[in-house]
Amino acid sequence: MSMTQTLPGIESLTLLVTKEIHVQASIEDTFEALLEQIGPQNSTPEGVSFPMKIEPWPGGRWFRDLGDNNGHFWGNVQAIKRPTLLEITGPLFMSYAVVSNVQYRLSEVDGGTLIRFHHKAFGAIQDDHRAGVQTGWTHILEGVRKRAEAKRK
Hints:
By secondary structure, the chain is of the alpha+beta class. Helix content is 27%, strand content 40%. It has helices at residues 10-13, 27-38, 127-152; strands at 14-23, 53-54, 61-67, 70-81, 85-90, 98-109, 112-123. It is globular and about 45 Å long.
């Protein structure tokens, strides 16, 4: 007995999130705030502490350390150019057949720093993850903005 499956269209296999946020702080403070926010100061949109580890060098890991050699691997630093670029590739929060590329591009603008954010993913992306990424990434970017602007004061 043979089974025939219809493959999903390419749209259902891809994810693209693009955001821009203006931060009223120096590019250096904003980059440091980014590393803090996606690292030890990370939290969920509901305000629950969700600390991560980021090794900020090429090939460095981004992961959730649960202690006692337990945790969840999110990705590797693909490129880092302080203070203008952080690029990570890996499965992120999706523990299944998927690969993501996340880019934070920072540039100096009048009055502070502009962060251009992209999350591109390809794979069997689950509907709940597809629905939650907008809220999650917005929360992280807002956390970076608040953290960097607080450093300025």
